[in-house]
Write a structure and sequence with these properties.
Blueprint: H1 7-34, H2 39-78, H3 87-106, H4 111-123, H5 130-153, H6 157-178, H7 181-201, H8 205-209
Helix pairs in contact: 2-3, 2-4, 2-5, 3-7, 4-5, 6-7
């Protein structure tokens, strides 16, 4: 039987398919070879650094949160022992303390949540799988960058402005509303100082780590 003229085209198409499959199969190996040789060491370093920042963030959040909460409880506890006309000062102090705790609950730093997830992935990583190590390293570096951005964002100028504006409002509330200018100034100034201290003591370890 005479060969069909379509057979060379079929053979060419088959060879093209084989070549494409070979390229696709080789792609992970190419990407793995482009990954840094010390990927495992770099991954371990990011894991340790993020865990350290997460520890600092937990201490920072709990320390300030418990301290502010305790001051609010103390203000309420003092109410029965002060003159009725002065109780608004103590209620205001307790209220501002309650508001001061809210950012720790509703806008926490990312590191305490991200660090355990990254560490679990590092622990589960096969010891001799360079491709998987490179893939996880890429994700870990992205996580580190996101944490650095989160820490920078929590110290932006508008947090300082919001702190000053809120505590100025507290001062005006007591001063204009009740003519308690002395307690208003004390509450407003103390709140502003504490707010600035919280912002300036916030951990920023990831911001420094992304530079390495």
């Amino acid at each position: 039987m005479r060969p069909s003229r379509s057979q060379p085209w079929l053979r060419a198409g088959a060879w093209t398919g084989v070549c494409l499959l070979a390229v696709v199969a080789a792609a992970p190996a190419v990407r793995a070879s482009e990954c840094r040789a010390d990927a495992r060491e770099r991954l371990t370093w990011i894991d340790q650094r993020l865990d350290l920042t997460a520890t600092h963030a937990r201490w920072w959040a709990w320390g300030w949160g418990v301290g502010i909460g305790a001051s609010g409880v103390a203000s309420l506890a003092a109410v029965p022992f002060v003159a009725p006309g002065e109780r608004i000062d103590w209620y205001t102090s307790a209220g501002t303390a309650a508001i001061g705790v809210l950012p720790f609950l509703f806008s926490p730093l990312r590191a305490p949540a991200d660090a355990p997830r990254l560490h679990a992935a590092v622990v589960a990583l096969p010891p001799d799988d360079h491709a998987a190590t490179c893939a996880l390293l890429s994700a870990a570096e992205a996580t580190l960058i996101e944490n650095a951005r989160n820490q920078r964002d929590q110290q932006r100028w508008y947090f300082h402005a919001g702190n000053v504006a809120f505590n100025t409002g507290v001062m005006l509330f007591l001063g204009l509303g009740f003519h308690h200018w002395t307690s208003g100034i004390i509450n407003g100034a103390a709140g502003a100082v504490v707010g600035e201290a919280i912002i300036f003591t916030q951990p920023t370890g990831s911001v420094r780590d992304v530079e390495f």
